[in-house]
Design a protein that fits this description.
alpha+beta, 26% helix, 3-stranded mixed beta sheet, single chain, 8 strands, 3 helices, elongated, 5-stranded antiparallel beta sheet
Length: 170
């Protein structure tokens, strides 16, 4: 008869705990390197310790800043021997075109740009991002064509947004 609380944890649970701990450690090491207006968007650790760090900056994030942060963080991680035998790879970049906005600060950075918002119910709305606050965004869009065109404003609570992507115009 098995006693209560003596079951075995699933390996996926333990793996998730270890990964979360690694992400927390990397985030602590990264924070002092984020100078000027650079901020962390996301850290992902893929199999075989492939660490991907996505950064952004209010004034834009150039490749030279990514390289500087990558080299500094890599050196710290090697010196601290976070991964035995240096068994890791590190990539530092911006999220890239077409990646969803994940943070409030990214919405603020993109005021004035066109975005496509997918709501939790699956409906989509595209428009120009007019304003952002802690609870909602406001977009402006045009309905109709020519003389029947009407510009409308729509307020969308952040809680209702499944995904928002900046639209790129060529």
């Amino acid at each position: 008869m098995k006693k209560k609380g003596t079951g075995v944890f699933p390996s996926s649970f333990i793996s998730t705990m270890i990964k979360d701990n690694q992400i927390g450690t990397i985030e602590k090491l990264l924070q002092p390197l984020l100078t000027d207006d650079i901020f962390l968007v996301e850290i992902k650790i893929k199999p075989v310790n492939n660490i991907k760090i996505f950064l952004d900056a209010d004034s834009g994030l150039g490749i030279e800043k990514c390289i500087r942060i990558n080299r500094a963080l890599y050196k710290i991680m090697e010196e601290m021997a976070i991964y035995p035998d240096g068994d890791f790879s590190l990539e530092v970049s911006s999220p890239g075109i077409g990646e969803p906005l994940k943070m409030h600060r990214q919405y603020v950075k993109n005021i004035g740009r066109d975005i496509e918002v997918t709501l939790n119910d699956g409906n989509k709305q595209a428009g120009n991002l007019v304003s952002v606050n802690e609870q909602q965004i406001e977009i402006s869009f045009t309905e109709g064509k020519n003389k029947k065109a009407v510009t409308k404003q729509q307020v969308i609570p952040l809680a209702d947004i499944k995904q928002a992507i900046v639209l790129i115009k060529f």
